[in-house]
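PROTEIN DESIGN WORKSHEET
SECTION A - STRUCTURE
LENGTH: 135
TOKENS:
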């Protein structure tokens, strides 16, 4: 894939990450968007649109070196702050799932947006690696 297409995917992924994070934060306000809200589906569709390239990159890295695992491949050239952000967001998503889905009778918008944040972050990290690799 050429560098321009990767840059577009990286920008879309980064914007999706930011928008999804804002949507998740706004879900704690008085008016929580439900699954019927169009914006929730736009976030999900946006992720599906960008996930192909990161998935193929991770698979290629694992195929090249069988000792490498998924997380090592996904964060191959991510700077330390991105790795730390990923760990924090992933731990938060797990807490978010347990708290909202199991203990609070489920607010699925919060649960879904919490996990989409992790998925967008994985895509952004992997595309960051691909752009670094294409230099």
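SECTION B - SEQUENCE
RESIDUE ASSIGNMENT:
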């Amino acid at each position: 894939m050429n560098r321009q297409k990767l840059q577009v995917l990286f920008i879309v992924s980064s914007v999706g990450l930011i928008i999804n994070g804002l949507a998740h934060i706004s879900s704690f306000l008085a008016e929580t968007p439900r699954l019927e809200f169009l914006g929730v589906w736009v976030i999900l569709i946006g992720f599906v649109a960008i996930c192909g390239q990161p998935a193929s990159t991770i698979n290629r890295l694992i195929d090249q070196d069988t000792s490498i695992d998924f997380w090592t491949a996904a964060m191959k050239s991510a700077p330390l702050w991105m790795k730390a952000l990923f760990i924090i967001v992933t731990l938060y998503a797990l807490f978010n799932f347990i708290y909202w889905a199991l203990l609070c009778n489920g607010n699925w918008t919060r649960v879904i947006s919490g996990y989409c944040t992790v998925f967008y972050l994985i895509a952004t990290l992997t595309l960051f690696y691909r752009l670094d690799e294409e230099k």
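SECTION C - NOTES
DSSP finds six helices and no strands in the chain.
The helical segments are 3-26, 38-50, 52-64, 70-74, 80-103, 108-133.
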